[in-house]
Design brief:
Shape: globular
Number of domains: 1
Helix content: 25-40%
Largest sheet: 8 strands, mixed
CATH superfamily: Vaccinia Virus protein VP39
Structural class: alpha/beta
Oligomer: single chain
CATH architecture: 3-Layer(aba) Sandwich
Mean pLDDT: 89
Length: about 240
């Protein structure tokens, strides 16, 4: 009788958590991620052998808008790499202050930019700047830890600048982007080069081409090109792997 009662309590607990929108970690979750000590700037959570870094809070917004960013990252060249067309619909995932979103909006004059971020304070900063500059082709989107919250097949290009390595759920985020990207769409993944020890960035905030390709291939993408013309960063272009 006692065993039956304990089983009933466990079942009741599971149903209650489901009703509250909570999830119970299953075996698939345990197989996807591992948890162990690592870098002081990491969260102790690992995906495919890589530790995930802490997210930069909205308090660092001034760093995103620093005056020497163009010199350090050659953001103008990055935009050229993207070959932005007037009618492009682009998602800037991890948009932060909107540094890239506003530059892309000037090029996609007949298109649209979705500025996606998980922090409401970042989105508010974009909205204020958008109102001040009267920019009409940017829409802020509140993302989550597991989704960019965009419709299926809704964007032709996705830009991620120094943000992917901070995703708490990289596998789920890649799958979300896969759904939102059109069949011929492209992801432009910008990350500091782990292969270059001279780049003055903490190692946990860098990624190698090999590691990045491994993670994206696992979720249905293939590397089309790595454009090596940025000072410190990879410009990795991913496309959907065509099914046989």
């Amino acid at each position: 009788m006692k065993n039956h009662y304990n089983l009933f309590l466990l079942l009741l607990l599971a149903l209650t958590m489901a009703a509250c929108g909570q999830t119970i970690i299953d075996n698939n979750d345990e197989e996807t991620y591992t948890f162990k000590d690592g870098d002081p700037n990491g969260i102790g959570k690992w995906y495919m052998g890589r530790e995930i870094a802490h997210v930069m809070g909205y308090q660092g917004i001034n760093w995103l808008e620093r005056s020497d960013r163009e010199k350090e990252e050659n953001t103008s060249q990055l935009l050229k790499n993207m070959n932005i067309q007037p009618d492009d619909t682009i998602a800037d995932v991890g948009a932060g202050s909107g540094y890239h979103a506003f530059k892309m909006a000037k090029l996609a004059t007949e298109g649209f930019i979705y500025a996606v971020d998980i922090q409401p304070e970042m989105l508010q900063a974009i909205s204020v700047k958008q109102s001040e500059q009267q920019v009409n082709n940017i829409q802020t989107i509140q993302g989550s830890e597991k989704s960019i919250n965009l419709d299926e097949n809704s964007v032709s290009k996705i830009l991620l600048v120094d943000v992917y390595h901070k995703f708490n759920f990289p596998k789920e985020m890649i799958e979300s982007m896969h759904k939102s990207l059109t069949s011929d769409g492209k992801i432009y993944l910008i990350e500091y080069k782990a292969e270059d020890a001279n780049i003055p960035i903490k190692e946990i905030h860098k990624m190698s081409e090999k590691q990045t390709v491994k993670e994206f291939e696992a979720s249905g993408f293939r590397l089309e090109q790595n454009i090596e013309n940025l000072p410190w960063q990879h410009c990795l272009i991913f496309v959907k792997e065509k099914s046989n």
